[in-house]
Amino acid sequence: MLQANSIQPYVGYIVMVGLGLFMLVIALAVRSSLVRNTHDYIIADRRIGLGFGVGSVIAVWTWAMAVMMSSGQAYTWGLSGLFWFTVPNGIAVMAMVPFALKLRKVIPNGYTITDFIRSRFQNRPALVIAVIGMIFGIFLEIIINLKGAVLLMETIFGIKEIVILAVVILIVTVYSYFGGIWTSAITATVNTLLITVPAAVVTLFVLYKVGGPDVLFESLNKQDPQLLSIFRPEAAASFGITLALGLLASTVADQTFWQKVWAIKPQHVKRTFIWGGAWFYPIPIALGLIGLAALGTGLKLDDIGGDVTAVGPYLVSHLGLPLIIVVLYALLVLNACYSTIDGAFSALTSLVAVDIVKPLWPKLSERRLFAATKLSIVVCALVAAAIVMSGVNFVSLVLTTYAIKTSLLIPLILAIFWPRLTSRGFLWGIVLSIAIGLPVRIAYDELVGTLVIFGISAVVPVIWSLLSKEAPFDYAVLKHTKQLDDAEFFAGSAKGGPVEPSVGSIPQLGREV
Fold first, then answer.
1. Membrane spanning segments where (predicted)?
2. Inside any domain, residue 482
3. Domain tally, the chain
């Protein structure tokens, strides 16, 4: 049933460049009408509506992992793999709602989640570890999606890795550079349409080519009836539980999502994340069926170099489908990669402007602040490309990302909802969970290591804080503190001098504690 792949590399170049030029046109239009200064660039004047909000959430969450690992896990574990991959994904997005509502209420003029950490603890080491964790997570998101783009274009079109990296990085960096979060929100909404519709079309063609769902499920049942079971304990132990915890951490402990919390109009925050999580589900379900189809056709991992993530691209390009269908598949995966990298770049700029550049150089002019913010995208892209060239394994990279983000999850939740949490409890919960949990993960397996990280990050902050004699934190302090106005903050840069906090207020929005 599988055939030789005769698609020429020039088709891949047209797909990569054509999609990039389309996004660049949108970015230039956005820049001319919506982006005037750093404030517009990193927070969109807090004017993103429900439509662009939902589209941007779906697009940044539909990254290379969602479109390629869904096929890979379904291929590996059957329906159970598809279940454990899909269900926690949407729940993780919807789980943002209580955290988003709480912080948007107490810090309506926030920019970054680390800005909250600064105000909550007034402790430099806690702030530094939070900033490092967020930036590290953003780097890994970019690396994962660059890796996904390389895997896709190599498998289908045979283009060399260095060429793919150069083209993808140049394209996404250029159009992200111009528009910031406005570009990210608008192009992401377009990308959502370019992912969901092609995913359905491609999957229907794949199912037709393998004889239809009845033939496919009959083939799977003959191979192993367990492939049609949703609740396989070994699938949960192998990757399901680890993935579920990691996915939750990837929303709650990720500036990519928090940037949107403060950029979206307040009345739309709740619905944005609920609809974003719900509307995400059709994408991994459809693409997971491609993995089942690969399993049904008897595709062997040895045929594709042993990387389960390449199952989808390999099957689509070797099944004898019309060229337009193969191109649609390549476009949807590239869209997922482009939109997530774009969203990560946008989140990075908010961290750099508010938590790094502004505190270190408070007298920096608005023009130079804007330039430094945009320059961070270029630097990040070059570093990420170098790491991808090192040949790191895709699946291992994803799971490592989740392990590190898991260390931030419980301390951050406690910081938002538990007034007894102290700065030292927050700090050492993260540090010890990584210092102990990662070696355990390397020595044993992902599940044991992740549970150790999760356990330490939960127990240490609670015990440390209960033993402390510090008074509970009063969240009303945040709510009633004179909030620094957006325009006032950036006007301080434009005038060449920092804005001084009022007496008794908690310094926020990038200023030193």
1. 12-30, 50-69, 81-101, 126-144, 156-178, 190-210, 230-252, 273-295, 315-338, 369-388, 394-418, 425-444, 450-467
2. no
3. 1
